[in-house]
Design goal:
The protein has about 525 residues and is of the alpha+beta class. The chain is globular, with a radius of gyration of 25 Å. A four-stranded mixed beta sheet has the order 1-2-7-4. A three-stranded antiparallel beta sheet has the order 3-9-8. Strands 5-6 form a two-stranded antiparallel ribbon. It has helices spanning about 5-25, 25-30, 45-50, 55-65, 90-100, 115-120, 130-135, 145-165, 180-200, 210-220, 225-235, 240-245, 250-270, 275-295, 305-335, 335-355, 360-365, 365-380, 415-420, 440, 465-480; strands spanning about 75-80, 80-85, 175-180, 385-390, 395, 405, 410-415, 480-485, 510-515. It starts with a helix and ends in a 5-residue tail after the last strand. Helix 8 packs across helix 9. It has 21 helices and nine strands.
Length: about 525
Amino acid sequence: MLLGMPLLLCLVLLLAVYWLLREHYAFWRRRGVPELRPSMLIGNLAGMLSLRSSPADFLCQLYNHPDAQDKPFVGIHVFHKPAMLLRDPELIKRIMIKDFPKFSNRYSNSDYKGDPLGSQNLFFLKNPAWKEVRLKLSPFFTSNRLKKMFPLIDEVGCNLDAFLRQQPLHNERMRCFDLEAKELCALFTTDVIATVAYGIQANSFTHPNSEFRRHGRAVFEFSLMRAAGFTLVFFMPQLAPHLGFKVVPAEPTKFLRNTINYVMAERERTNQTRNDLIDLLIDFKRSTLKAKADGNSDQFVFEGDLLVAQAVIFFTAGFESSSSAMAFALFELARNPEVQQRLRQEIKDALIASGGKVTQQLIESLEYMHMILQEVLRMYPPLPFLDRECTLENGYPLTPFHKFNVPKGMPIYIPAYALHMDPQYFPQPRQFQPERFSPNNRKLLTPYTYMPFGLGPHGCIGERYSFLQAKVGLVYVLRNHLVTTSERTQRRMKLEPKAIILQAKGGIHLRLVRDPLGV
């Protein structure tokens, strides 16, 4: 009898917990909202947490679930929290553009104090800080600034070409050698960003394990622990501060903080200017100091890690997204030789017209290359989903889509990759077809279904820079080399299940054949 009572109490307690959980996970059913049935505790994230598929493929599975078909949105659960998965382009337009002020914050976040460089940058900042920083950084990406950057980007492109031409041939008869394309492209983009943003020569081609490359690589290496941490950041950010996860790990944080603070101090000491990101950050710092001296308490405070964080996000996001686009482009060119032949002919014709000199005008004239990169970004967007949260105190009505009122703080996910792979919007989505983005065909695309750089005011601030950098890199790869597949090339791209961003599982292994265009 004495033993029976504790067992009975435990049973009652378990039943009570089960009943409470069942009621909690009935959130969407009680409100008459179409839902994807969740599992207790983990919600709808089982497919991703099991690492059976990449986050991109997992969100595709949610998007294409039979219970989601023909619905403008469905209710899901991210762990314990109710969330929305948007499917209808018009609803996406409302949330991302038309009613942006009501959804201006990302739901994702990191530890503001413990991970200052990871959380205080333009990507994760919340309003009103996000708006202030975005406004201040915008001048760095004007046409005039890009024009001044171009000679620096071109110089690194020349280094890339020289690096490839110096590679020993694995087969003298075929005049070819093998390499991992993502790492090659990351060496290029690391050097570009180091020089255009910080005025530093990273020399990644001569020192592939230099501090810049090593610490940049560490941010986007996805071990099981890093995968778990990024899952928290995007799906349960409230726990990130308590579990000690950092978007920018401790060693890269120390290196990047010391480097950027040193470069800023040297510029201030010598009064040298390069019209780069460092000069812009120094201007921010001086405006803050002046406002403090004038007693202006309304001035947004730009100092310390808030300044460094903007330089860090430009470095990490800039080298990763562009190098991925370049590497995936090389993969598709290797698998589609007719596309590559047409592109190389376009580059050759442009080089002949410019007297063999790579200029910004030449890069901007490469229309077919632009189509190729747009198609690459459709198939391999850097981030496979976008996230927002409702910021209205009284919630947001979804009429005419539904009578449901979105409460403040509810996460909303837009499955960019799934929309890009929807045959309703992009027929034969698994096929690489740059012609989708020809000037005439581009007009026929369904609006708000293509979003590799995001949508609306929160869209990527560096989109034009990213295209410019990737195009220069591809010109210098293809000027003297033909790209083909090798025995190690995947027949069909498999995405890394541990990576929240799109990464190729096992790398992108290709063969380069020395085949100069002769210009």
